[in-house]
Amino acid sequence: MSMSSRSFKHPCLVVLFAASSIGQSMPCAAQTASTVAPATTANDAGLAEIIVTAEKRTERLQDVAMSVTAATGQQLQTLGITNTSQLDKLVPGFSVDQTVYGTPVYLIRGIGFNDTSLGVSPAVTIYMDQIPLPFSPMSRGAILDLERVEVLKGPQGTLFGENSTGGAINYVTAKPTDTFQAGVDLTYGRSNEMDAEAFVSGPITSTVSARFAVRNEYQGDWQKGYTADETNGQKQFHNGRLLIDWKPSDIAKFEFMASGWIDHSETQQPQDIAYTPLASGPAARVVPYPVASFPPAPRDPRAAAWNPADNLSQDSSFYQFALRADINVTDKTTLTSLTSYEYYKQDIPLDLSGTTYPLARTADRGTIPSFSQELRLDGVFGNRVKWMVGGNYEHDRVDETLGFNPLITSGTNVGPFNFDSFLIDNDQTIKSKSGFGSLNFAVTESLTAQSSARYTAQDRSFSGCTRDDGNGELAGAIGFLSTLLTGTPQTIPPGGCVTLTSTGQPLSIVTGQLNQNNVSWRESLNWKPDHDTLLYANVSKGYKSGSFPTEPSSLSIQFNPVPQESVLAYEVGVKLDRLSRMLELNGAAFYYDYTDKQLLGYLVVPPFGSLPSLVSIPKSKVEGAELSATLHLTPALTLSASGTYIETRVRENPPNPTGPYGNTANFVGQSFPYTPRWQGVLDSQYRVPISNGLYSFFGANLSARSATNGSLLSGVTAVAAEESLLRIPSFTLLDLRAGIESDQGRWRVEIWGRNVTNRFYVTGATRNSDFTTRFTGMPATFGISLRYRFGQ
Q1: pTM (2 decimals)?
Q2: Which of 18, 35, 562, 756 is packed most tightly, with the most Cβ within 10 A?
Q3: To 5 degrees, how large is the angle CA 431–CA 434–CA 437?
Q4: β-bridge pairing 747-754 and 131-133
Q5: Which residues have a Cβ under 8 Å from the Cβ of 724 and sit 6 or more positions away?
Q6: How far is the first Cα of the chain from the last one, in angstroms, to the nearest whole number?
Q7: What mean pLDDT comes out for the span 460-485?
């Protein structure tokens, strides 16, 4: 099925990104968002008509006045996409970063957040059948037995339940069927990768149907020690979902979902690229290992180093129960209820140093129970007005504990005291209430005005501190420091809180409150001079909530929260179908004006050194354009191309800007971290008959992006060489595929290669105390996939 990324961007990309497609057997299925109309086959003359619910009501994708990129579940499998972090193969303008402690961060058009805290609300929110997965790590198992995925770009705080400034990703599950169906997908690849997915679906009674899907992912070690004979990287991931649909009458429908996953995979270990001590001379802590002479990692994606005595297997899990009810109150009014409860648990170990010495093993542990409820009414008045009103309530509890080894920094001396470990607690309770509404008014047959708004009030409470791990070492050190600062003897018990007030007094706990509200809104005017042309202009206001940091803190003020960020976004776009739907073009230009943007900067935390930390940028901007083209060149060949151009700029410094190496910084004029200026995706699919009922296919996917930085930099010449290590170079990746399949897609055999040129590329780079490290992308991987469907 061929892909069309519906949001393509700068005109120059027509030249830079020659047309191609993700296609398989249905030419335009990649553009679906929430509901797909019957699609044409590859032998038909034009691209398929696509029906979506991007604005929570059914309409043609070409009639939706916003940028949407989407793909079918089969296309995700063909591209090797098994989790949200890999969507950059499909969506230009989408990028991902793995934080220093392993939490994924998603960005759209340069908009995201990059923080190590588990409890930070994302700027790009993930949904499963419109039900929020409010924290990014919850989305690990979302790609299972999907009908499609849709990616909505720009602020999405008006109709969806989570305020998000970057965008929203809505996964749409494959639904229970009225007839028996079943299927299995098997994959074997390099490093003994073995993936197996299966589903069974069908009626239970005349009013009840169900669908059950499971997936198991296994892979052997793919990382290799370059100074020791060790391996790492084994994947063990188990995923399942049960859907039950009940249709007791023509006016009511109920959908129940139970899903969950378990992840016991070994965490990818970073590569050491530089050691730069924060302290030297008598004031420095003596690190009892020859760290300075440890060889930096070679340019090999598999090369890494870690303490071989450590167990690097994570213990993370997630489960969710959700119920959707749709009741037709009248023939023109529908009441919809969305209820969900989710529970996430993680224990993620990581070696922060990238060396074989026992310096800096962390363990990020935490739990998140989350409850949400949405209730909405939508309907129509006559032929001109469509309306929707509703409300949301969400309650989250985030309990996080980060274990830390201070040998990662030479600056952790406190007088005569040394300490070898400590803990950081960050417990947050978040309550959000909101009310929303939308109105679409057909001014004329071709001109439509749209308006939507949401009021949100969020109360976020915090309790936490940096804590002695029970051996009394850090308690004694900070107790000594408190005595010096206050002039009176101070004692901190083993296991106690070691965070002090600004005057040096010990605290038993640090507490805080962040209560904020906002009104997000969107105004749109779109004009359809004919059935196959749409021109639109949008203005929207979006928000992302603030949060409290998780970082070593000797003073309570270091736990001060960052406030909510806001953006005023402008977008104009065009969507065109031409040549009897043989050619589809979509383009948009956008400009974002930001206030209090949350970006990754640094904070010097005595005695713990220079650490990554969110900073609030008072003024910044984003501007850019996107362009997409899909061409059904012949019944056998489909081509598509998409690209994004993004220009980001910091316009005003935060208080006390600090660079990665502790220097006073100037961020003005810098681009946002993890925001490449150029991104593009090309895909082509050629499918021809080789005998009666049998087809062969060949495809290629090319994704490329320009260089970016792993954090805001100081701009100081004295550390320019060190800060250049935080540069993430440009890269281009090539995937290939070929195989045979039956005419109706009942069975399929495919051989594939990912990153077939074995390109070395970096996905993240960070400075953490004395060490600068990077994460790398996967090396060349080859394999075979089998697919079979029953009952179709």
Answers
A1: 0.88
A2: 562
A3: 165
A4: unpaired
A5: none
A6: 17
A7: 89
Q: Is 717 exposed, middle or buried (0-12, 13-18, 19+ CB in 10 A)?
A: exposed
CB atoms under 10 Å from CB of 499, counted, come to 25
Residues listed for the chain: 792
Q: Is the dihedral of CA 144, 149, 153, 154 positive or negative?
A: negative
With cut-offs at 50, 70 and 90, classify the pLDDT of residue 407. Answer: low
DSSP symbol at 327: E
83 pLDDT above the threshold of 90: no
Torsion of CA 161, 167, 171, 172, to 10 degrees: 70
- The two tokens of residue 130 are 């419109």
User: Across residues 502-528, what is the average pLDDT?
Assistant: 92
- C-alpha to C-alpha distance for 523 and 521, rounded to whole angstroms: 7
Euclidean distance between CA atoms 453 and 542, whole angstroms: 10
Write the DSSP symbol of residue 660. Answer: T
CA 58, distance to chain mean position in Å, is 26
Q: Within a 10 A sphere around the Cβ of 40, how many other Cβ atoms? A: 18
d(C-alpha 29, C-alpha 60), whole Å: 13
Nearest to 695 by CA among 659, 744, 735, 730: 744
Name the token pair of 372. Answer: 């949400």
By the 8 A CB rule, do 230 and 306 touch?
yes
Q: Judge whether residue 50 has pLDDT over 60.
A: no
Tell me the residue ranges of DSSP E strands in 531-582.
Answer: 533-544, 565-578
Beta-carbon contacts of residue 487 (< 8 Å; ≥ 6 apart): none
Supply 764's token pair: 């993240």
How many CB atoms neighbour CB 58 within 10 A?
11
**Side-chain-facing half-sphere of 327: CA atoms under 13 Å:** 7
The tally of CA atoms less than 13 A away on the side-chain side of residue 22 is 29
Given this model, what pLDDT does residue 94 score?
86
Question: Mind listing the pLDDT tens digit for each residue in 562-607?
Answer: 889 899 999 999 998 887 778 889 899 999 999 998 887 777 766 6
